[in-house]
Design brief:
This protein is of the alpha+beta class. The strands form four sheets. Strands 5, 6, 7, 8, 9, 10, 11 and 16 form an eight-stranded mixed β-sheet that branches. The protein has a three-stranded mixed β-sheet with strand order 1-12-15. The chain has a three-stranded antiparallel β-sheet with strand order 4-14-13. A hairpin with a 2-residue loop joins strand 8 and strand 9.
Length: 344
């Protein structure tokens, strides 16, 4: 018996531009209405599907300091911090007023941007396909939305200025170009990263832990250590981060396939970035009213003159900013999988 193969893409070319009007700069251009043509129950159901599929992807976001951006307050968020004072080590002179220190603050700001995507589903596919197409598209869009949001945060964090390179045995490395598969993340390298954060006086999460995001290929090497403690074997009951797999040398590790894998190692070896954080190292903006939104338009709204397709998509606003460079450090290393993994 022959197996029938349904090429979904044959039915999914309904159109790429909907309701677009050319004209002057203040003309109506491609704006869709807020009416989604669905009952409130169905909209809630699809929104739930989107969020449930996006949340597992949000690994980096959970570690940032959340900053609400209220409605009608512009698109720019500013963080401010007071400048610290140096120690006063010079003895006071009797009856002489010292110079004193000037008090001030430093600020940093970022502007939110909007991101989103959609897919079109033909009326024929919706009518004849065996599988629930709208639900399937919603699930996949949710996964893509989560991955997009998390990668946007990750890419900002990769601009951090503090970096260490894993040594090859006892031979130190000073650049990415000299890293090989043998330059693995070890407990000693972890300890050095944690010590660096301590020396920078980076505050800990819950006053106890630093946190790192690690790629599975790097975790494969690190978890082979006898010192590694898996998350489910913690001695005390404790809150666990999303994706957390265990702890070592005062650092708790979150595993994610979105942890950076980069080119540039020696002989073409892939290089992995494990990102170590103290508390509030970076900020993530949460715009009020523009969080992750599921948007479904039925064929009567966007399907053209013959109602030939519907659309399923998402949009959200996002912004990330490093607040304290000294509270984060990137450790670049090789892995047992450096010869087979691909950059992400």
């Amino acid at each position: 018996m022959m197996n029938d193969i349904l090429d979904l893409q044959l039915f999914a070319e309904g159109g790429t531009l909907v309701n677009t009007t050319t004209g002057t700069s203040d003309a109506y251009k491609g704006t869709t209405t807020t009416n989604n043509g669905m009952s409130h129950t169905m909209k809630t159901y699809y929104d739930t599907e989107l969020l449930e599929n996006s949340r597992p992807q949000l690994v980096f976001t959970q570690l940032g300091r959340k900053q609400i951006l209220p409605r009608n307050h512009g698109k720019t968020v500013q963080w401010r911090k007071f400048n610290t004072f140096e120690k006063a080590m010079t003895p006071l002179v009797e009856a002489v007023i010292p110079t004193g220190k000037q008090f001030g603050m430093t600020s940093t700001s970022v502007e939110v941007q909007q991101f989103g995507d959609y897919t079109s589903i033909s009326d024929q596919l919706d009518l004849h396909a065996v599988d629930p197409i709208i639900l399937g598209a919603t699930e996949e869009m949710g996964a893509a939305a989560g991955a997009t949001a998390d990668t946007l945060v990750r890419n900002v964090l990769l601009t951090g200025t503090n970096v260490m390179y894993a040594p090859k045995g006892s031979t130190p490395n000073t650049s990415r170009a000299t890293l090989t598969a043998e330059c693995k993340l070890t407990p000693d390298v972890v300890h050095k990263a944690v010590t660096w954060l301590k020396k920078c006086k980076a505050p800990k999460f819950d006053g106890k832990w630093y946190v790192a995001v690690i790629h599975p290929s790097v975790a494969y090497d690190l978890t082979a250590s006898q010192e590694w403690v898996e998350a489910h074997k913690y001695a005390a009951v404790t809150d666990i981060f999303k994706g957390e797999i265990g702890q070592l040398r005062g650092c708790r590790f979150i595993e994610s396939t979105e942890a950076p894998v980069m080119t540039g190692g020696a002989g073409g070896a892939m290089v992995y970035a494990t990102l170590f954080f103290g508390k509030n190292a970076f900020g993530v903006v949460d715009p009020e009213g523009m969080g992750l939104e599921m948007i479904i338009k039925d064929k009567s709204q966007v399907g053209g003159p013959l109602n030939q397709f519907s659309t399923v998509g998402y949009k959200f606003e996002s912004a990330t900013q490093i607040l304290y460079q000294e509270r984060m450090v990137r450790v670049e290393s090789g892995s047992s999988f450096s010869s087979v993994d691909e950059a992400n």
